[in-house]
Specification:
- By secondary structure, this protein is of the alpha+beta class.
- Helices cover 30% and strands 22% of the residues.
- Strands 1, 2, 9, 10, 11, 12, 13, 14, 15, 16 and 17 form an eleven-stranded mixed beta sheet that branches. A four-stranded antiparallel beta sheet has the order 5-6-8-7, with helices on one face. Strands 3-4 form a two-stranded antiparallel ribbon.
- Helix 8 packs antiparallel against helix 10, helix 9 packs antiparallel against helix 11 and helix 14 runs antiparallel to helix 15.
Length: 492
């Protein structure tokens, strides 16, 4: 089941969100002989599976989608050139069987898998996928993606019917990670152009399931693709239902309306875990929640004030308070533990909770009696902000006024550096580039990730080297770890 500071991001408040998956257990077994244990291991074919998703899908057009819940459906219907392996530690073949990178890291050459067919649609009869389809799909993404999901690609060249080259404007070792995104699935040109704006409702790809019906705001019905190039699914039909209300999602599972519920949160996790008919499976998400303090204006422009706030913040208390039924762990670093750049040895560099030292630092900075400030959050982050507000008042006599904004206003305010403090979230690929560059590079000042205004020339150099010097993951990880050391040193 498939499920990404002030001076820097408050590494202390960074935590990894967990994705809760609830599946029904038990059920009738056919009386075909063999031990019960053997039967549990046997794969059966046929039947239907109903999955509940916690948010609604607005589009399945690869260049228009913006939500992870949409990608969860799209990945059932289409494939990318490459994918991550199960533990997200490396990228492995999918529609591409192998690849190589030029010495200057500007050209990636991919050999395409033979025998891959598109699902049948109105404008083609289930033809073979070709290099021209890869060129069309990826160039469309590079030019038109709403989320810039293939940035830096200048051209895709067809070398032969089974080979293509992707050309970059500048070296970027994170290209392979980008290619795993559902926004870069391969689709047939004639179906996209034939349906126009309605392609999303008539989606065609090369995936294990094909779209048969989409009831807007309700559910998507898929059927097994009998011509799928890889191992075929065991089930005949897959229905994915959109149930945004957490109580309704849980009730649908318990009533048997759905077999699996994705992204179950809060008290419903406890309700299900206490029910012997269900199993709660929790996988770490590539997401962090972080506290940013403005580096440019206000009291937090002083490094001592930022350090005082870090040391006055009990992150463990915040995490346990907000996620009292599970669903979150402390990360300490500005990366989710699921990222291959995460290094546990760096945790010792993170400022420790010490209210007494925090008071001394704040006094040295000229605020012995505290001060008044504001923290900007979206509705979803209010629980974090409320506990944080209480801690700063108790430990430093800092009065924090919580400002709750709708997403558009929040992101605009933070990006422009107008938020004294904010609590945000970041979700992306396992590649550290998509966290550390976005959150800490000087060029990102003015964007949502670095609205805090963090800038360190040495960090910039390391982050640039990590994508321009090598594509070897171990070598890149060392560069990111050096950058993390500097980042952590900037607020301790």
């Amino acid at each position: 089941m498939k499920q990404i500071n002030v001076k820097k991001s408050l590494a202390l408040l960074l935590l990894t969100l967990m994705i809760g998956i609830l599946a029904a257990c038990g059920g009738g077994k056919s009386d075909t002989g063999g031990s019960s244990e053997e039967k549990d291991r046997e794969a059966t074919s046929g039947g239907s599976l109903n999955v509940g998703l916690s948010a609604n899908a607005k589009t399945f057009d690869p260049i228009k989608y913006t939500g992870v819940y949409e990608s969860q459906v799209m990945r059932q219907m289409a494939d990318t050139l490459v994918v991550y392996n199960k533990d997200l530690s490396e990228i492995i073949p999918s529609l591409a069987t192998d690849w190589k990178v030029s010495d200057d890291m500007l050209v990636y050459t991919f050999k395409l898998r033979e025998g891959v067919k598109f699902q049948k649609g109105k404008y083609q009869e289930g033809r073979d996928m070709t290099a021209e389809d890869v060129k069309y799909s990826l160039e469309r993404s590079a030019k038109e993606s709403a989320m810039n999901r293939l940035s830096g690609v200048t051209e895709v060249k067809v070398i032969s019917n089974q080979e293509i080259e992707i050309h970059l404007a500048s070296p970027n070792a994170a290209l392979l990670a980008m290619l795993t995104d559902a926004g870069n699935v391969i689709i047939p040109k004639e179906e996209v152009e034939g349906w126009g704006d309605n392609f999303s409702e008539h989606f065609i790809g090369t995936g294990p399931f094909q779209l048969t019906e989409w009831k807007k705001d309700q559910e998507v019905k898929l059927v097994r693709n009998e011509n799928y190039w890889d191992e075929k699914p065991h089930i005949d039909n897959l229905t994915m239902k959109f149930i945004s209300d957490q109580n309704m999602l849980t009730n649908a599972l318990r009533s048997g309306d759905i077999d699996i519920a994705m992204d179950v949160k809060g008290q419903n996790r406890e309700i299900i875990s206490q029910d012997s008919n269900f199993e709660l499976l929790t996988n770490p998400g590539l997401s962090i929640v972080y506290l940013d303090l403005n580096n440019k204006v206000g009291p937090t422009a002083d490094k001592r004030v930022r350090e005082a706030i870090y040391k006055a913040t009990n992150v463990e208390e915040i995490i346990s308070g907000v996620n009292q039924w599970g669903g979150g762990v402390v990360s300490y670093l500005p990366l989710p533990p699921g990222s291959w750049g995460y290094d546990k040895s760096l945790i010792d560099l993170v400022p420790k909770y010490n209210p007494e030292e925090a008071k001394k630092l704040l006094a040295e900075a000229g605020y012995p009696d505290g001060f008044k400030t504001e923290i900007y959050v979206s509705e979803a982050r209010v629980p974090y902000a409320t506990i944080f507000q209480s801690q700063l008042k108790e430990n430093l006599n800092i009065d924090v006024d919580i400002k709750v904004l709708e997403w558009g206003t929040y992101s605009d305010t933070v990006a422009k550096g107008k938020a004294p403090m904010n609590i945000g979230g970041w979700t992306w690929y396992p590649d550290p580039y998509f966290f550390l560059y976005q959150l800490f590079h000087t060029k990102q000042i003015g964007a949502l990730g670095n609205g805090k205004g963090y800038s360190n020339p040495e960090v910039d150099k390391l982050l640039e080297r990590a994508v321009s010097e090598t594509v070897v993951q171990e070598e890149r990880a060392k560069l990111y770890q050096e950058a993390l050391k500097l980042i952590l040193a900037d607020f301790s």
